[in-house]
Amino acid sequence: MSGPAKANDLLGQIPASERGLPPVHLWNPDFCGDIDMRIARDGTWYYMGSPIGRKAMVKLFSSILKREGDRWYLVTPVEKVGIRVDDAPFLVVALEATGQGERQTLRFTDNCDNAFDAGAEHPLRVETDPATGEPSPMCGLVAGSRH
Questions:
Q1: What mean pLDDT is predicted for residues 86-90?
Q2: What is the average pLDDT score of the chain?
Q3: What is the C-alpha to C-alpha distance for residues 7 and 11, in angstroms, rounded to an integer?
Q4: In a domain, 21, yes or no
Q5: How many other CB atoms are found less than 10 A from the CB of residue 52?
C-alpha cells in the first residue's frame, strides 16, 4: 500500500496510551519498505513532497519515530517503514537556564513540544557538516536510547 492511505494506516496501528510515548523501543516489526516522508534540516516534516502543516499530525508521527543505526523509521507493533531525515528529527526551539555554576540546568524544548534537560542522557555536542564545514549544535539522547 502506498500514498496517503499508507500514512493513515500507520497511525491507525498505534495502540492507545493513557500517558507517555508509545513504547517503540519494544516494537520490532518486519520492515515494510520506505515511504516518501522526510524531515528537513529546519524541522519541517514532508509527506509526498508537501509539508505536513498540522502540528498535531507531526507530533503523532514523531511519537512513533525510531532510530536503528543510521536509519530512521516510523514503527507500530506490526509495521516498520523507513523515512529520510536530513539532519536531526527534532529542532530545539526554546532554552531555559535555571540556577548557576555546577547547579545550572539547561532545559530544552523541541519543535514537537518535548522538553528535556541537558546532561548525561542528553549530552550537548557540536557536529560539523563534512561538505560545508558548518557547525551544528546538538542536544539529544545518547546512542541506543529512544530517539
A1: 89
A2: 84
A3: 7
A4: yes
A5: 18
